[in-house]
Specification:
alpha+beta, Peroxidase, domain 1, 8 helices, globular
């Protein structure tokens, strides 16, 4: 792990621990999970929010005012809003994606869930996602939450990552294997 990534994950971990403990003490883990989902969607879909959290051009007060306005618009829990404001005042909003990941993993651990990152050539239907979650649950012995993304370069099939395990049934990987076999022969 590179040093800046290690520092970011350390900072995010400390904030995540504090937010998670506050939510757990107040018995508001469901609301925290909803806040994490809403924030994750916003970070993924909003170039303006991405710019706010990563650009050094904004002053501390501009960052703080903007993130407080975003938190109010999203109706985030007070502990999440206050944490975001504190992060902005310390110029640490750049760790927001890491914070969300750390919170997601703490919530999943508390619920006895594992998260499966699934990449597919086309968006999974609800039925396919449910069936995949049941199959993975049978193999892993834990409830599985599917985090699906679309990667058209796969051509077909899926790639499933659960922790350090990866299952790649994509046509792209099969074509690559075939290409390597053909290179070895000729």
């Amino acid at each position: 792990m590179s040093e800046p990534t290690s520092i970011s994950s350390g900072i995010a971990s400390r904030y995540a621990t504090a937010v998670f403990q506050l939510a757990k003490e107040d018995k508001k883990l469901k609301q925290l999970e909803a806040d994490v989902d809403v924030l994750q969607r916003a970070v993924n879909e909003s170039p303006d929010l991405q710019s706010l959290i990563s650009s050094p051009l904004y002053s501390r007060s501009e960052m703080e005012n903007a993130i407080v306005a975003v938190a109010e618009a999203m109706k985030l829990q007070p502990y999440m809003s206050n944490t975001l404001a504190l992060m902005a005042s310390k110029r640490r909003l750049f760790v927001l994606p890491s914070l969300l990941g750390a919170l997601r993993s703490r919530i999943a651990k508390e619920k006895g869930e594992v998260t499966a990152e699934v990449a597919s050539a086309k968006a999974l239907t609800k039925t396919q996602a449910t069936k995949l979650a049941k199959t993975l649950k049978a193999q892993l012995g834990s409830d599985v939450k599917i985090q699906a993304t679309v990667d058209e370069t796969l051509i077909g099939g899926i790639v499933v990552k659960v922790g350090s395990k990866m299952i790649d049934t994509s046509i792209r990987s099969k074509l690559n294997a075939l290409q390597n076999t053909m290179k070895e022969v000729g």
